[in-house]
Specification:
The protein is an alpha/beta fold. 40% of the residues lie in helices and 18% in strands. The protein is globular, with a radius of gyration of 17 Å. The two termini are 27 Å apart. The structure holds pyridoxal-5'-phosphate.
């Protein structure tokens, strides 16, 4: 699809390229320290709250995996940039926004309830696709947070696997703000290890953000989702887990 191409200002390109190099160094160091290959960790640069020019700058610096947490931003930036990006959807997803995400995001990280899984499967199957997804787990079992409970995740994954048009490839978590994230990352890894015994395609562990990439990689993260360390601070109202709709 042709679309007007968004170009990044040279200063922004340099800035994002420099930050990306730092983040890649952190990933390399953490993987090496954990006895893992750096290539076993995929960096998803989360561009939410930043303009399309920032995405163009990341792409110019060789970053192809980008993440968004609202359908609105995903649609706008995908249209502005055109080809070349592998989009990840990492935020809370409402059923009525599924149609905007299918066909744009290669991987949806945040499937946590049956009606959402069914809506994704239905849309995707109708479009002749199989949507790759991760199941988001509420590792802190906090009733105010998104994610399937740790008790339910095995059953939930089993049910989603029965659907046509959707494929569960792993688990995702956002650890609670308080406490040591390592414990929560270890919990997610334990759940993944159990599930993988039954369902071999459940491989990925999407965990680790700007502040805790190292401990997530030490605990086995295969995908890290990094926003601020790549793009700099973003305007308020776009924190992880924020379910508030932004008003322009
Ligand atoms: C914003 C966001 C991130 C990135 O967070 P940073 O702290 O900026 O690295 C990761 N995951 C999700 C789900 C997010 O919403």
């Amino acid at each position: 699809m042709m679309s007007p191409e968004t170009h990044a200002a040279p200063d922004l390109v340099d800035d994002v390229a420099e930050r990306l190099a730092d983040v890649r160094d952190r990933i390399r160091a953490a993987a090496t320290a954990a006895g893992r290959s750096p290539s076993s960790v995929l960096l998803v640069a989360v561009s939410k709250g930043h303009p399309p020019e920032a995405v163009a700058a990341a792409l110019a610096a060789g970053q192809r995996d980008l993440g968004e947490s609202t359908a609105q931003e995903l649609v706008a930036k995908a249209a502005a940039i055109g080809a070349g990006i592998r989009w990840h959807f990492v935020g809370r997803l409402q059923r009525n926004k599924v149609k905007d995400v299918i066909g744009r995001a290669g991987l949806i990280h945040s499937v946590d309830r049956m009606p959402l899984a069914e809506a994704i499967a239905e849309r995707s199957h109708a479009a002749g696709r199989v949507q790759r997804v991760l199941v988001q787990v509420n590792v802190g079992d906090d009733p105010d947070k998104a994610g399937c409970s740790t008790d339910e995740v095995g059953r939930f994954v089993g049910r989603v696997r029965e659907l046509t048009g959707i494929a569960v490839q792993g688990l995702m978590a956002i650890p609670p703000l308080d406490g040591d994230p390592s414990d929560h990352f270890a919990t997610l890894r334990g759940l993944r290890d159990d599930l993988r015994g039954r369902f071999p395609e459940v491989q990925h562990l999407s965990m680790g953000m700007s502040g805790d990439v190292e401990s997530a990689i030490a605990e086995g993260a295969t995908i890290v989702r990094v926003g601020e360390s790549v793009f700099g601070p973003r305007p308020s109202g776009t924190a992880p887990e924020s379910s508030k709709r932004k008003r322009a």
